[in-house]
Design brief:
Helix content is 40%, strand content 21%. By secondary structure, the protein is an alpha/beta fold. α6 crosses α13 and α9 packs across α10.
């Protein structure tokens, strides 16, 4: 369904400021219609004058951009266990962050209460801003149509849970929910319109491909298309179940089982506060051959992941592949080794047309932040009432 003029204007201006002439080109609307829409959006605090085009002999055109001062978006990452909440403005600047105390197995009632309390906290901190909505990032299978969590394997209480509706009822604002790796991809790629086919590879408890077909995220019927479970992450000749070693938790656990508990390296890993930090610390030990056992494990990971990626590249032929998830911020030596092993498995045509890089978004709040961008994109694409009242 095509976006209405106001939503199209806001969606396009998230990328960069534009003149009325620019907006006419991308919306197809007439100049009178655009003037009325832009005037209404300015009055409602969505837009402001962002500057003027460079003069080319005539009067320089006014550039309109997103006003960062009047609205707020809430993002929630359900990490199971754990939860992270952020608040951003419309352009994506982070205004606030909050990590609630230990929520155990993330009881659904506790999650709803925490999000409701955070919305109230943000309203108190930023009283002049209006909450546009909440974006939720979650693992597991999600019904894209209803916003219900169908199942999360390691959290039995999150089965057929209508979390989107419960949060909307509790907070009174619109809510969207999506896969957490897809949210990381939204944080990485931002709001820019891109017609290429590209992929964000989230390495967590398995591999998750967030696939953008000509710039549009493909989610599939269960909200997490592209997931390769740990059972399939097996090296050639490995025994069934060895894929557990090639995950964030499993790799670290395998290393800790193989070294004395009082070893300096083991104590270093144990001192890290979260699973991703321990995983990256292990990659640091392996980088450059600093630790033999770590190097052996990461070598196995490197070639298994490369084989998975090569199969995917042969099948989909993306133009850009980004290492993300727990690999975001990994040592360059590790990601370079995976890229080299991947390229050795590709024919020249695919190799020459593939760009590979590490994710630039590496913050612990990446998924929560990305959930705000994903919410805004969905909100602006959805049918709904005008964002601002047009006065004739």
């Amino acid at each position: 369904m095509a976006m209405d003029t106001q939503r199209t204007i806001v969606s396009r201006l998230l990328d960069q400021p534009m003149s009325l002439a620019d907006l006419r080109d991308v919306t197809g609307a007439s100049l009178p219609t655009l003037r009325r829409a832009v005037h209404a959006l300015r009055d409602a605090g969505w837009l402001h004058v962002a500057g003027r085009e460079e003069a080319t002999g005539g009067r320089p055109a006014t550039l309109y951009g997103i006003d960062p001062a009047n609205h707020v978006l809430i993002g929630a990452h359900l990490e199971h266990p754990g939860m992270r909440l952020v608040a951003t403005d419309l352009p994506g600047n982070q205004l606030d962050e909050h990590v609630p105390p230990d929520l155990g197995d993330l009881d659904p009632d506790a999650v709803v209460a925490q999000v409701e309390a955070y919305v109230a906290r943000v309203a108190t901190r930023f009283p002049t801003r209006r909450a546009v909505g909440i974006g939720v990032a979650s693992p597991g299978y999600i019904d894209p149509a209803t916003g219900s969590v169908i199942t999360i394997g390691r959290v039995p209480s999150w089965s057929n849970l209508p979390i989107r509706q419960r949060l909307a009822d509790a907070t009174g604002v619109p809510v969207s929910i999506g896969n957490d790796v897809d949210a990381m991809a939204a944080a990485e790629f931002g709001d820019a319109f891109d017609d290429r086919t590209y992929v964000y590879v989230g390495f967590t408890e398995g591999i998750k491909y967030s696939l953008f077909l000509h710039g549009r995220l493909y989610v599939g019927p269960f909200g997490n298309a592209g997931l390769v479970p740990r059972q399939l992450l097996v090296s050639n000749g490995s025994q069934p179940g060895s894929g557990d070693l090639l995950t964030v938790h499993g790799l670290v656990a395998a290393y800790l089982r193989s070294v004395p508990a009082d070893a300096v390296e083991a104590q270093q890993l144990a001192s890290e506060t979260d699973a991703w930090s321990r995983f990256r610390a292990l990659l640091e030990l392996a980088d450059g051959g600093r630790d033999e056992r770590a190097s052996e494990l990461v070598h196995d990971l490197t070639h298994t992941v490369a084989a998975q990626l090569a199969s995917f590249v042969h099948l989909v032929q993306p133009e850009l592949l980004v290492f993300g998830g727990a690999m975001a911020g990994a040592p360059e030596g590790v990601t370079s080794a995976i890229e080299s092993a991947l390229r050795r498995r590709l024919p020249t045509l695919l190799d020459n047309n593939l760009v590979v890089r590490r994710a630039r978004a590496t913050s612990p709040s990446t998924a929560a932040y990305g959930a705000t961008r994903a919410f805004l994109q969905r909100f602006l694409r959805a049918a709904g009432p005008p964002l601002a009242r047009v006065v004739a």
